[in-house]
Amino acid sequence: MFGFIVRRLGVMALTMLCLTLVVFFLVNLEPNLKKLAISQLDMRSSAEELESWLQKNGYRQNFFVRYGQWLGVVQKQPNIDPETGVASPRFSYCDEPAEPYYGGILQGDFGCSTKFKVPVSEKLFPALGATGILMFWVMVVMVPVALLIGVLAGMREGSRTDRTLSVASIATTATPEYVSGVIFAVIFASWLGWLNGSAATATRQGISFYNFTLPVMTMAIYGIGYIARMTRASMVEVMTQQYIRTARLKGLGFKAVVIKHALRNALIAPFTVIMLQFPWLLTGVVIVEVMFRYQGFGFTLVEAASNNDIDLLLGCSLVSVFVVLSTQLISDVGYAYLNPRIRVQ
User: Fold this and answer.
1) What is the mean pLDDT of the segment spanning 279-307?
2) Cα distance between residue 58 and residue 77, in whole Å
3) What's the CA gap between 236 and 226, in Å, rounded?
4) Distance between CA 232 and CA 158 in Å, rounded?
5) How big is the chain by its Cα radius of gyration, in Å?
6) Is residue 3 included in any domain, yes or no?
7) Residue 203 — very low, low, confident or very high, per pLDDT cuts 50/70/90?
8) Which of 42, 103, 162, 228 has the CB geometry, 3.0–4.6 Å to 153, for a possible disulfide?
9) pLDDT at site 151
10) Could you report the per-residue pLDDT of 47-73, keeping only the tens digit for each?
11) In this predicted model, what pLDDT tens digit does every residue of 18-31 receive, in sequence order?
């Protein structure tokens, strides 16, 4: 198992390197650089002024040199005034030194946000913390409810309870977040007035229960149906196994059979599905956070993309890749521990 984990970590590092290289290339295409220069100067700036700004801030250096600087394996160079020869930092609002230095991902430096005028870490990590709180409560609501629905539906295949819960699960899964979010906003905020028009808006001073009630409900309702369907299918399969019939013939009650014998084996497949919800949550929060103006990771990602904030966009991409690969590794390891028949060679 240790060797398997080490190999997977090596593959993760290589995958992150390749994906960040691709993203770095895409965000540094010529139209994006021109858009960045315009946003930092003025719409009426001439082509010469835009080119001068790009040259001054190092965006015209060799592509692989700039990628190496972002990683932290190539020295970053300060701006040199061609007339006076005085060195100055590229972005003064990020406290960059006015001398060559190594500052990249490997040194914990994510760069400078040209949109928010702060280091990327000061914008990215608080947004990740806010989204982490949101994702935690989504999982707290989603997982127990989904498992309960799936187990109840799978215990008695074909019953009225099974058909009712299955239809409800399919209906919630078939409803996108941007549809259910609008429906919840209309029902709870407009019709019932429970949220008084303020719960759908997060503030930078902090978040409360009411600040993210609608986002949690919107994301949980979609994931509940998907996990419940997987749990139900796994439960139905387990309930037809021979050892379940043997336990019933020995005189064990139906609840004892389900809890002691069927439930653990039935949760193997749903465990993998639950772990894969973390990458889905990262993509789902983009829609939900923008819809409800929740100041989290998804909202920050959209802000970075719409304003061509290259360093912030690269930081968001790196975090997304890391979360996806990490949850896949945890899923594989957890699956091997839950299922004794799985052996890692």
Assistant:
1) 82
2) 8
3) 16
4) 11
5) 26
6) no
7) very low
8) 162
9) 80
10) 888 888 888 877 888 889 889 988 888
11) 888 898 898 888 88
Q: Is the pTM of this model over 0.85?
A: no
CA 314, CA 105: separation in Å to the nearest integer?
A: 10
Distance CA 201, CA 218 (A): 14
Beta carbons of 230 and 273 less than 8 angstroms apart: yes
* Assigned domain for 244 exists: yes
In a domain, 192, yes or no: yes
How far, CA to CA in Å, does 23 sit from each of 19, 279, 322? 6, 18, 14
Domain hosting 202: range is: 121-338
Report which of 301, 299, 141, 300 is spatially closest to residue 218, judged by C-alpha positions.
141
The pLDDT, as a whole number, for residue 197 is: 46
Q: What are phi and psi of 119, to 5 degrees?
A: -60, 145
Structural contact between residues 73 and 27, judged by C-beta atoms closer than 8 angstroms: no
Collapsing DSSP states into helix, strand and coil, what is residue 206? strand
Structure-block tokens of residue 329 = 């590794």
Domain of 147, CATH number, reads 1.10.3720.10
